[in-house]
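debug: dumping io for the single-chain case to check the tokenizer round-trip. Nothing else runs in this session.
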Amino acid sequence: MPLVARQDLKLAVSQQSESAPLQPITTPTWIRLPLTDVRLNLDQLESRDNAGRIGAGDEFPTESRALRWTHELTLTFEGHVEGLAYFINRFMGIVNNASVGTPATHRTSSPSFINPSTGGRTPNLFEVLIDDGIEKRRLISCAVQRVRIAVPELDRVTAEVNIVALDNVDGSAQTMPASEATVNYVYAHADNTVFTVLGINEIASRRLRSFELVFEQEIPRDVQYVIGGGFRTTGQIESGAKPSRMIFANRRVTASFVALYEGTEEISKIRDQSAGSLSATFKGGSISGASPAADYEFSLNAPKVKFASRTFETVGDIVAIGVGMSLLKAGAAPVSVSFNFDKDFLFS
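debug: decoded output
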């Protein structure tokens, strides 16, 4: 088997959503978003053997039977607004996009969380196409389990996305896009970033070192398999069960930041408040031709933030303070997000 170079690995996501678990999109449109790293953990087989069985007479197993398969992958990318918009929309579940201008000059996206009492507990499912230069695999019924957005003191925002899938099938009939999509990045520089927590503008005071926002949902594996839900032919020891459903359980959003430590007044304000707020905006360049004028942008607002933890660290000879925060539900959700971009290929 020939070796596969890192730069030969290609990955694309579907523009469309699946209508239901294990209902592949009939004619998917694939989007290749630029990535910096991909970790694949596909075809994990959980099995059961007879090791140590009473009366077996041997400590080593002599037979094994497959129980079920699971598939996971992790994508890392520099923070282009298109990737942030795509995966956070998928995580939150309800895609809300609108065109701006007549004729349209750019687009906005303001996703919202699925309400389990009205929208059920099935995540927004999409598909992933992987081409390693030797074969193509198509991951069916993919859901975003976790999105971690990190904002360093300099340079671009970065993101890490954890995805789980229900099935891994042959993808040879699919056409991988020849090139990556053109994307636009957002940055953490002071001139185009607003970061306010509990009324303290950390950017204006030039003290913010880093910021992190994490969206996470539990996708329990033990309820994905049900009787009659996809077991392969009885007696095929090397086969196993395919999951027949995907649901999310608890969801949470957390945030943290590190800032240079200059005094006790603001730290006490953060620590002693009953509930404050958090808002942040990260921008890129101007959208060409946008009317009204607009920048590539990722914004978030958490109206009810609770202090959770405090740590100290040194940055050279200067002491910095790390603050962890829980984002509490206020109204319909703990956080609202919005994006500005000029692409019409993200969703259909």
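debug: round-trip ok. The longest strand covers residues 295-315.
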